[in-house]
Structures are given as C-alpha cells and as structure tokens.
C-alpha cells in the first residue's frame, strides 16, 4: 500500500471489514431477510415470547417461502439453490430476530426438507418439496426421544413390516414444528437398521401434542410426537439410506445454520449494549465512557466478529464440498458458547433493564440455553473434536 493510499473508515458495525468477503448477491440476500424480520418479527416478538406462542405460524411460513428462505440451500423442486454462505447469512438475520424463528426455518429446510431431498425417492421429492419450499406444508424431524437424546442409537421407536405396509410405534420429544407440521420425518428402528419414514399429519394413530411451560424458545412450536400403531404404505420409507448416517447427516446440515444463527443473537445483544452504553448516564456521563464498560464491549466485539469469520470460513468450505462434520462441531461449540457469554455480558451493561422484554438481551440469553444443548450438547461436540484430535473414541 502506498503511503498516500487512504484507509477505509473504521466501521463499528463491521470492525474487521468482513463485508469485503461478501458478493453483491450475498448482501442482497442478507438485506432481504433483515428487512422481513424488521417488518414481520421485530414489532411482535416480545409479546409472542411473553405469551409463549407463535401466532400466524402458517402465514409466516408462506412468507418465508416467498422469500426463498425454506430449503434455500437445496436445488430444484422449487428451492432457491442459494450458496451455503447465503443460507448462513439468512440464519444470522433470522436469529437476530429470535432463535425460534431461525429454528422454524432450520427444521423445515435443513432437517425435514434436507432428509427428503437427499434420501427420498423422486416421487417423494416431487410430492413434498415444492409445497414445503413455498411454505404451504410445514415439516418436522422426529429423532430425539424422551429417554434418548444424545444417544440416538438407543431409540425405542420401531417399525415392523405387516404385509406390504409398515407399522410404527414410539415417542419423539422436543420436536420443533411438530403440532403444525403437515409431514413428519420420523426415524425408527427396523430389523434392517434405522430407517426414515414420512408420516403425514392426520394419519391414524399419529398425534403431536404441543409442549407447554417452556422458559426458552417460547416463540416457537415444540411438540411430542406420539405413534401408536401408525400404518404407512411401503412408499413412505426414505429409500436411499439405512442407519444413523441418515439422521446424523441432516443434523450436521442444521448445525451449520446454528453456527451462523448464534452470532445473530449475539449481535442483537451487542448492539443493544452499545446503544445503551452510549445513552445511559451514571455519575454524570454515559456509562460507555467508563473503562470497564469499554473493556466489556471490546471483548464482546472480538468474540462476535471472530465467530462470524469462523462461520463464513465454514460456509466457504461447505460451498466447496470440503466441510467435515468435525468442523461443524467446532463451529457450533465455539459460537453458541461465545454467544451466550456475549448475552450475559450485555445483561451486565444494561443492569436491571437487561431482564426486561423492552430489550432483547434476556430473551436471547434464555433462547441460547436451548440452542446450546439441542442438535448436540457441548459435551457431545467436545467428544467429537476429542476423537478427531486423538483418534480415540471416548463416547463410551
């Protein structure tokens, strides 16, 4: 750089200049999702969270379909075919609004639609994916059970053949979108191994009662799936996978979205803390002028933008077909953990106001407690990385 070259101005919202890594199309995707959340979620989310509801979820799903946000990284069948980075940017903006909104999109696209897209028959893809991409049909993903979360290999839900049909029995727990889903992707044990089944809503013996009394992800539909002698035709099974490889590959795709999404929640809290520090006065001046507050803000900014840079790097690897599951665990472990710490630090800057729904901080903090443990707890991701680093399996 020549001595006379002019440096760009420092941007407090982008201190590392990470926008330089984005194309115009990337920025357009981000702007479109941010605009939608600003109009459709931000004015209502505190009330939804306080009431423990997500009213108009079917309308929201259709709007997200119009936006191209459902199954957006998938190709064909009405899906947007966006890059992994663009999908990540969308997840960041959605979770900056609320983790429940990002969960709605992640479960629809990265779990339910991804399972059908990757492991379904051509008939299954044509039947379900276009309507799911449009938000006309909501999907859910049934893997976790009441007694088997981190160890899906121990699942008790089972499917047996009866003539040309399959009959499913079992329970699934903590299922996002469950009671509003038009189709559930349910994983069950069979004599041949674990298989995936497409269970349409309304099938006799299948129900999805909603789980109440949550103190996290309150603006999200969470359900139990109950399967009592649910009879399905032979063509309900996903034909292209047997074993845990199926559901685990779906989870890896969804975890990638969390790597980005957690940084959205962190950004929202950081921005609230910066604005509060600039305007809240104590001892005759704004608290942002005190050294301890500035130290907190500096540390928060460092972890926030390191996390976004990590997410971007993993997105480029995914777009290049080079992203390993262990690297997704690296991102999920780091970014969610750091996002929670950013929320907690923001809470200290806001003081008593930090617990008020007038600000987003406590809502994000409680949501992230769920994000920390769903789709792989801290301990599971630590063990994934531990095995990759040492070559030794410590899971059992």
TrEMBL record:
Residues 243-389 form the Acyl-CoA dehydrogenase/oxidase C-terminal domain. GO terms for biological process: fatty acid beta-oxidation using acyl-CoA dehydrogenase; fatty-acyl-CoA biosynthetic process. Pfam families: Acyl-CoA_dh_1, Acyl-CoA_dh_M, Acyl-CoA_dh_N. Residues 140-230 form the Acyl-CoA oxidase/dehydrogenase middle domain. The keyword Nucleotide-binding does not apply. Residues 23-136 form the Acyl-CoA dehydrogenase/oxidase N-terminal domain. Its cofactor is FAD. One of its GO terms (molecular function) is fatty-acyl-CoA binding. Keywords: FAD, Flavoprotein, Oxidoreductase, Transit peptide. The keyword Cell division does not apply. InterPro entries: Acyl-CoA_Oxase/DH_mid-dom, Acyl-CoA_Oxase/DH_mid-dom_sf, AcylCo_DH-like_C, AcylCo_DH/oxidase_C, AcylCoA_DH/ox_N, AcylCoA_DH/ox_N_sf, AcylCoA_DH/oxidase_NM_dom_sf, Glutaryl-CoA_DH_mitochondrial. Belongs to the acyl-CoA dehydrogenase family. This is Acyl-CoA dehydrogenase.
């Amino acid at each position: 750089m020549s001595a006379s070259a002019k440096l760009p101005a420092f941007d407090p919202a982008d201190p590392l200049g990470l926008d330089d890594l984005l194309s115009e199309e990337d920025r357009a995707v981000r702007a479109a999702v941010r605009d939608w959340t600003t109009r459709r979620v931000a004015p209502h989310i505190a009330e939804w969270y306080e009431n423990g509801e997500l009213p108009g979820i079917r309308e929201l799903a259709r709007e997200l379909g119009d936006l191209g946000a459902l199954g957006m990284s998938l190709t064909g069948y009405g899906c947007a075919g966006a890059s992994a980075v663009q999908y990540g940017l969308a997840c960041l903006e959605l979770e900056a609004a609320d983790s429940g909104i990002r969960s709605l999109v992640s479960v629809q696209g990265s779990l339910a639609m991804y399972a059908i897209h990757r492991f379904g028959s051509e008939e299954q893809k044509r039947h379900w994916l276009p309507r799911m991409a449009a938000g006309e049909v909501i999907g859910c993903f049934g893997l976790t059970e009441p007694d088997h979360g981190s160890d899906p290999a121990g699942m008790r839900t089972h499917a047996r053949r009866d003539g040309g049909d399959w009959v499913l029995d079992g329970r699934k727990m903590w299922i996002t979108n469950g009671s509003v889903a038009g189709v559930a992707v349910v994983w069950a044990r069979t004599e041949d191994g674990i298989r995936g089944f497409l269970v349409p809503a309304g099938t006799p013996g299948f129900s999805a009662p909603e789980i109440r009394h949550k103190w996290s992800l309150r603006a999200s539909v969470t359900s139990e799936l109950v399967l009592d002698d649910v009879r399905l035709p032979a063509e309900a099974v996903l034909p292209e996978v047997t074993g845990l490889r199926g559901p685990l590959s779906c989870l890896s795709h969804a975890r990638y979205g969390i790597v980005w999404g957690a940084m959205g929640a962190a950004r929202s809290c950081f921005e609230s803390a910066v604005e509060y520090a600039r305007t809240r006065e104590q001892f005759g001046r704004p608290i942002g002028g005190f050294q301890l507050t500035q130290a907190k803000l500096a540390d928060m900014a460092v972890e926030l933008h390191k996390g976004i840079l990590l997410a971007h790097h993993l997105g480029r690897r995914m777009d290049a077909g080079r992203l390993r599951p262990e690297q997704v665990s690296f991102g999920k472990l780091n970014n969610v953990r750091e996002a929670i710490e950013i929320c907690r630090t923001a809470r200290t800057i806001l003081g008593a106001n930090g617990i008020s729904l007038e600000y987003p901080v406590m809502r994000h903090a409680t949501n992230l407690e769920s994000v920390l443990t769903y789709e792989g707890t801290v301990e599971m991701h630590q063990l994934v990385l531990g095995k990759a680093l040492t070559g030794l399996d410590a899971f059992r």
